[in-house]
């Protein structure tokens, strides 16, 4: 359970952080 939770958190951070970093300027440009 702990391994799955840590893996899930790692995936969320690894994928979500760059996505948000790229998406925020894109959203500001279109807003």
Describe the structure.
With 31 residues, this protein is an all-alpha fold. The chain has one domain (1-30). The chain has one helix at residues 2-30. The longest helix is centred in the middle third of the chain and has 29 residues, at 2-30. The chain is rod-shaped, with a radius of gyration of 13 Å. Pfam families: PsbM. The chain crosses the membrane at residues 6-27. One of its GO terms (cellular component) is photosystem II. This is Photosystem II M protein.
Largest sheet: none
Helix content: over 70%
> Are there runs of 5+ residues with pLDDT below 50, and where?
none
Listing every helix as H and every strand as E from the N terminus to the C terminus, the arrangement reads H
Q: What Rg is obtained from the alpha carbons, in whole angstroms?
A: 13 Å
Overall average pLDDT: 87
Structural class: mainly alpha
How many E strands? 0
How many domains comprise the coordinates?
A: 1
What's the overall geometry?
A: rod-shaped
Number of helices: 1
**What portion of residues belong to β-strands?**
under 5%
Spatial separation of the terminal alpha carbons: 41 Å
Protein name: Photosystem II M protein
InterPro entries: PSII_PsbM (IPR007826), PSII_PsbM_sf (IPR037269)
Keywords: Chloroplast, Membrane, Photosynthesis, Photosystem II, Plastid, Reaction center, Transmembrane, Transmembrane helix
Transmembrane segments: 6-27
């Amino acid at each position: 359970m702990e391994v799955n939770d840590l893996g899930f958190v790692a995936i969320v951070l690894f994928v979500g952080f760059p996505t948000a970093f790229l998406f925020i300027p894109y959203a500001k440009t279109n807003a």
